[in-house]
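Tip: read the tokens left to right.
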């Protein structure tokens, strides 16, 4: 990279020629990062070396680097000054804004699949403030690699074929012990089914327990992944209004539209973040049993709670509760692991296992054995405790900055648990989709709450989701300053 040429070309612009050297260097580097000339992960020259190359004072370079770091564009550490992942999201957002939109075509697809084209795509972005992304830099990769090597050394040829239906028994047993101790479930290893992610669990539930045209209830606003799974199975969706105590179905809902499936996220509602009260949980279970409905309890980030004792999972509240409990390791460990699990009522085990054996062959036996050891030997619980402390620190920092800079504009929800919080506009006339798009142009990903509406039923929640688990505290002041500028 020719930094001298970069600096000279920027300094020659008419609009910056009168700027100080400090401001010109900062502007040149910032523009190069935004345009992708300096890509994410690139280590810049040391301040001393760059000062010598440009013939300027070292303090000028130090100032420029510090400004870029405060804006979240540089990460400083043992490797020196490195262009951050945030830069990549800014480049991507700018490219998407400038590029012509590709017209989706349904040619060759079924009518069922064509309907799914209108749904928003799953996000593959990282950076501030993408929800649902853990602090991947803090995962103990070295220990995981050693355990994985050990698992491969003890692997025989018999492990290279398809695994047992529902997953390796060692992992199912470890999961059963963990959820019974930590979440109050009542189950054994036979009731645990290992899947390749929560989306696979949702698809299996929709296909196995419903027919096309059956009615499924969801919280409104609700998780887009569940909507995709249910729509793909040709279910009818009905959004149930949400308040601060969770899903609130009316007597008319139960009387006029009794559901086959009910999807809920009671421990930390997605996307709003509220916690379903114990009274609501018990009432929902009683009505579900009365109407022969099956509740899908998605407990996606229940390990991270920061205020008060966690309410036990709905699955363990009543004997033989009509609940399928969903858990995942994507939030507690890392998404690329692609391992999640279901805890199924005993009455459904026999037909479901027969279905799995014929249509859903199991694999990834070595990774499952490695994960079983990771849980059994206490490494998983240790990692969760460490991440809980880290996420609480980052949550506290974000809450303080929101109160300091945007408290007159935003009201916070969902801060007691999880990996994201939601901020609602005090002025409900504000268009949260427009705000989300404006922030994306600045490299800040904050999904709009209104984009999570279920079916044709609109809801009254207007605001943004802010995932903080993977956002370092030192970058937050610069990010909130940009948010303040965009929103006000």
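Filled-in amino acids:
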């Amino acid at each position: 990279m020719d930094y001298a040429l970069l600096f000279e070309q920027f300094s020659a612009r008419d609009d910056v020629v009168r700027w100080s050297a400090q401001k010109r260097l900062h502007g040149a580097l910032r523009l190069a990062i935004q345009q992708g000339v300096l890509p994410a992960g690139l280590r810049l020259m040391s301040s001393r070396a760059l000062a010598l190359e440009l013939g300027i004072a070292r303090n000028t370079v130090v100032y420029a680097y510090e400004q870029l770091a405060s804006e979240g564009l540089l990460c400083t550490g043992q490797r020196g000054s490195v262009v951050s992942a945030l830069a990549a999201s800014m480049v991507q957002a700018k490219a998407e804004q400038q590029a012509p939109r590709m017209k989706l075509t349904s040619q060759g697809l079924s009518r069922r699949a064509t309907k799914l084209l209108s749904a928003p795509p799953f996000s593959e972005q990282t950076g501030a403030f993408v929800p649902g992304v853990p602090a991947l830099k803090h995962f103990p990769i070295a220990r995981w690699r050693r355990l994985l090597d050990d698992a491969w050394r003890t692997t025989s040829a018999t492990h290279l074929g398809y695994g047992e239906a529902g997953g390796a028994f060692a992992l199912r047993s470890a999961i059963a012990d963990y959820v019974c101790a930590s979440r109050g479930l009542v189950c054994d290893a036979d009731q645990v089914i290992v899947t390749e992610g929560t989306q696979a669990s949702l698809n299996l539930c929709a296909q196995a327990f419903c027919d096309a045209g059956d009615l499924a209830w969801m919280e409104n606003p609700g998780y887009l992944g569940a909507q995709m799974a249910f729509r793909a199975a040709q279910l009818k969706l009905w959004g149930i209004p949400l308040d601060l105590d969770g899903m609130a179905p009316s007597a008319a809902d139960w009387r006029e539209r009794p559901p086959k499936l009910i999807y809920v996220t009671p421990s930390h509602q997605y996307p709003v973040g509220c916690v379903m009260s114990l009274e609501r949980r018990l009432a929902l279970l009683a009505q579900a049993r009365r109407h022969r409905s099956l509740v899908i309890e998605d407990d996606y980030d229940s390990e991270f709670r920061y205020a008060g004792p966690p309410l036990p999972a709905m699955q363990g509240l009543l004997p033989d509760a009509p609940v399928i409990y969903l858990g995942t390791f994507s939030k507690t460990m890392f998404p690329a692991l692609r391992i999640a699990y279901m805890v199924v009522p005993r009455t459904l085990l026999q037909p479901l296992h027969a279905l799995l054996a014929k249509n859903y062959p199991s694999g990834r036996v070595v990774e499952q054995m490695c994960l079983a050891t990771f849980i059994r030997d206490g490494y998983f619980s240790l990692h969760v405790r460490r991440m809980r402390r880290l996420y609480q620190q980052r949550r506290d920092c974000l809450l303080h900055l929101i109160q300091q800079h945007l408290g007159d504009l935003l009201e916070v929800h969902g801060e007691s648990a999880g990996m994201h919080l939601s901020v609602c506009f005090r002025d409900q006339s504000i268009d949260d989709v427009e705000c989300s798009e404006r922030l994306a142009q600045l490299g800040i990903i904050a999904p709009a709450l209104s984009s999570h509406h279920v079916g044709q039923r609109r809801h009254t929640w207007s605001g943004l989701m802010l995932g903080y688990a993977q956002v370092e505290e030192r970058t937050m002041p610069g990010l909130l300053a940009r948010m303040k500028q965009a929103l006000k």
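DSSP finds 17 helices and 13 strands in the chain. The domain at 111-135+382-487 is CATH 3.90.1150.10 (Aspartate Aminotransferase, domain 1).
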